[in-house]
Each structure stands twice: as C-alpha cells, then as structure tokens.
Amino acid sequence: MATTSRRRRLASLLGVTALAVATGGALACPAGASTNVDFATHCIPPAVAGIPPIDGTTTAAITVDNTAPKVGDTVTVTYTVVKPAASNPTAIALPADIMTPTGKVTLGGAQTGSFTVAGPKKNDPVPGNGAFPSFSMTGTFTVTTPGAITLSPGDYNIHTSYILELDTPCTVTNPPAPVSETVTATATVPVNTRAISLGSASGNAGDSVTVTGSNFTPGATVTLAGRSGSAQTADTATVTATSAGTISGSLTVNDKTTTGIVAYEGSAWSADLGAGPAAYVVNDTTPVPPGSQKLTTTVKAGSLSMSQAGDAVGLSAVDFGKGGASTGALNTVTVQDFRGGPAGWSLTGKVTDFTGPGAKIDAGALSWTPACATKAGSPSTCVAGSAGTVGSSGATLASTPDGTVTGGQFTVDAGLSLNVPAFTPPGSYSGVLTLTLT
C-alpha cells in the first residue's frame, strides 16, 4: 500500500506519462492510411514511473505519397500508430501538446534497411487512466532498386515534455512487424538527348550533305548513315565527337531511295545511342525517255490534333468517414497525326487540387490507368503511359516514338481514381485535368 501511494504522489508531482497496457478498442484509422497491422510491442516506461516494462499490442499503418516510384525518387512515408500499446496509468489528466513521437520504418523485398520518422509535438489532452491518442510520424527514403519494396512499422518512442523530459521507447517484440504497405519501383530509363541537323533536306544523287549533332559521348566514333525507310543504305561515313559531345561531318548520298539520315555510336544503329532520322530526299533527275511524260503529284503534310468526347467527368461518390477510391473514366481522346515526317507525339496531363466546401483534396490523390489503341494502317503505334499518380506536375497519358515515317489515328482512354481521405467534409469537389499534345 505504501508503494502504491508513493507512485501516485510521484506521478502527481511530475505528470509522468508512463505507459500501461491499453484495454480499450482500436481507434479509427486516420484518413489515407493503408492496411492496419497489429504487432507485439515491448515498452519501457520512464524509471520515475516505478512500474515494470509493458508488453502489449500496437495497431499501426504505413502510407506513402507514391506507390509507383522510379529509382532515384524520394518517397514520403507516414507511420501512424493507430492504437499505442499503452495508456495513461495514472488518474492525473495530461495536457495537450506534450508528446513528440519518433520511430523507424523497416524496408523489405527489393530494397532493405530502415529509416527514421518523426511527428510534431501535438496531442489531444489525455484523461486520467485514458487511452493515449493516435499519432503520426513522417519521413522519407530514396528508391535505389527496382521491384516490390515492402514497408513495415518499426520501433517507436514517445517523448514527453511535462515538467520533466521523459522517453518511453517501444520496440517490436518479433521484428519485422507485418507489412502494411508495398510500393513497386521501376528502373529509371536514361534519356537519350542526342540530336542531329542537316545542312539541306534534299540533293541530287552523289551530293554531300552536312550533318551536325550534339550530346554525343565525347571522343566517341559516330557513324553517319542513310536510311531507306527502316533499313540502312550503303551510304556511310564516320566522324569523331568533340570533347563537348558535338559532331560535324558530311555524308555522300548515292542511294535514290534515301528517306532520312541517322548518326549513332557503336557498330550498329541503336535508338539509345543514336539520333535521327532527319528527313532527306534524293531528287529524281532521271531523264524522261523520248515519247514519254513525267507525271508528278504532291502529298501535302497535315497537322497534329486531338479531340475529346466530352469536357466533364463524374466520379463515383464516397462515404464520409470511409473515404477511398472515387472512380470514373476519362472521356475518350482521339489523336490525329497527319504531319508526315519522322516526329512522334506525346500526350500529357496534369490536374489541379480538387476544391470543395471549405476544403480541398490534393492533386496528388488522382491516379490513372492509361490505354491507347492504334487505327489499322497507321505508320506509328501508340504506347499507353504508365499507371500511377497524375498530380500537379503531370504524367504521360500516351505517346508514339520518332521514326522514319510516322503518323496515324489513335484513341486514348484512362481509368481514373481519386483517393478521398476518410473525413473529407461532405460536398462536391472539382479539379481541372488539362491535356497537352506535343
């Protein structure tokens, strides 16, 4: 009895926030949280509390700002302790904003290790013998390896600043804790910025054309070659890139079927190490035989354009308190590329925040799953963009590559999904998705 009285007096004097096993139910998972997981936790109260270590169960969840990052991207992670493994062991109410949580998140799968997270010094008042409130901590990690990367909640510590500065560390009893979130990382594709230009776009058979270029590997041997459609002709020459990566040389063009000129490093053409084709035409100077007439026609180049099946999309409703995916479909976009020549195109989109009644949903909450179809007979083939976040910075919806001859007609669609936080105020929210064709 004397020991109990001494502990109560000490707790009353110091306002100690030592932890005891919680017996209440789990708190509601915060908005945006992913899978809740439970794991055994060993907590060590401050020595001044005079109570032994506590073995209890923590309920937690991990969320990320990007579930489909690329290697080199930085991912922001939120570790939410939905229900700590403990509660206030005293009858003394604890004031607001005295708790500063810190912790670790464990990585597994394609990338292993751990990183730290920290939360603000912010909490609701805790009644005497009441459950400790849910709290969140954030941190970042850089993606270094492609593949599926799992995230599990790790050890955490509650630092309290109430008369004394005290720590209550809680460790995962059987690490690692269950996986709460998984991100799938993709490899970063090196961007080929090599480019060439020609001194002229046409000439007679046997004429030389000047070829200049930039962003080649300094000191590399670069082959200049004629192209007839997708096939290389016998017309070639070599130059050496300067220390600045530039090239300059001339190519004698004899093949009358030439449609373009390329420049590349290595022993054979590679789109990763080459530039072009730059359009080039060999003039037909063949004399007209006696008694014959030479007939000539012209195919006029058109334009690159797009049209949309509509300008409004209604996404499905979600429930207040539950939130989740508000889904719909992008109005079909039709792209016509009637320019001719070697250039492909890219269709990108970006979205504003979704604004509503005194609140907003961040633009980064919108993701899409693109799809693209090519009309039969088109020289180019449409490639759908990657599924993932659209956001205010934008993402690629569809594209076609550069080629010797490009063009055609294409239809582009996408499934849309807006991740609405659980307790977003009721009402209508609208954002503007802008598509740009280049």
The major beta sheet can be summarized as:
9 strands, antiparallel
Radius of gyration: 32 Å
How much helical structure, as a percent, in the residues?
Answer: under 10%
On the 0-100 scale, what is the average pLDDT? 84
Signal peptide: 1-28
Protein name: Beta-xylosidase
Keywords: Signal
Description:
By secondary structure, this protein is mostly beta strands. It folds into 3 domains: 2-185, no CATH class; 195-283, Immunoglobulin-like (Sandwich); 304-437, Immunoglobulin-like (Sandwich). Helices cover 3% and strands 46% of the residues. Strands 1, 2, 3, 4, 5, 6, 7, 8 and 9 form a 9-stranded antiparallel β-sheet that branches. Strands 19, 20, 21, 25, 27 and 29 form a 6-stranded antiparallel β-sheet that branches. Strand 16 (260-265) and strand 17 form a beta hairpin. This is Beta-xylosidase. Residues 1-28 form the signal peptide. Keywords: Signal.
